[in-house]
Amino acid sequence: MPEGGKNLSALSEAMAGKSIALVGNASSFVETPKTLERHQFVIRMNKGAHIASEKGNLRTDCLLISAFRGKKYLEAAPHVVWMTPKKRDELSVKEIAAMYFYPVPAWEELFAEIGDRPSTGCMGIDLISRRLRGGELWLYGFDFWQSPTTYTGVIRPGPHSPDAEERFARSRVPSSQIVGLDTSSR
């Protein structure tokens, strides 16, 4: 972790014992504020908080980011977590002081487990499931690249493995809590 980053224990305390919605960026999921309001803590990823605000749903308690930087992202949520081990050396002192950091050893374990570079969503599932402490994790907008992302309009798994990430998600989150995932063809 870069010097000066926030201690993850504060994020753990904020999530402890709560019903948590982790909102992915799959366009197959059409979110409504009512759907997420039943959860006590809403976590979005990358441009997800800004897409939500464009749709009128402003609720974002935590934002997980891997490539997007700047004031806009630091102000998008009370808690902001830099997920990828990449580009940490490019962050400013102000950015480092304002964020939590997903631990590099956890990233290395996850990489070894799934056999590919984990996506922000996969890292988010890992981060949250390790810190639930009596809470529950629900996934929305995760279809593992079966539909385009909300902010690119493209299906592009990139360096990630959709099948391995889906298996990992199902190992950490009950299928009944992966909302909107069509399991009939799986």
UniProtKB/TrEMBL annotation:
<feature type="compositionally biased region" description="Polar residues">
    <location>
        <begin position="173"/>
        <end position="186"/>
    </location>
</feature>
<protein>
    <recommendedName>
        <fullName>Glycosyltransferase family 29 (Sialyltransferase)</fullName>
    </recommendedName>
</protein>
<feature type="region of interest" description="Disordered">
    <location>
        <begin position="160"/>
        <end position="186"/>
    </location>
</feature>
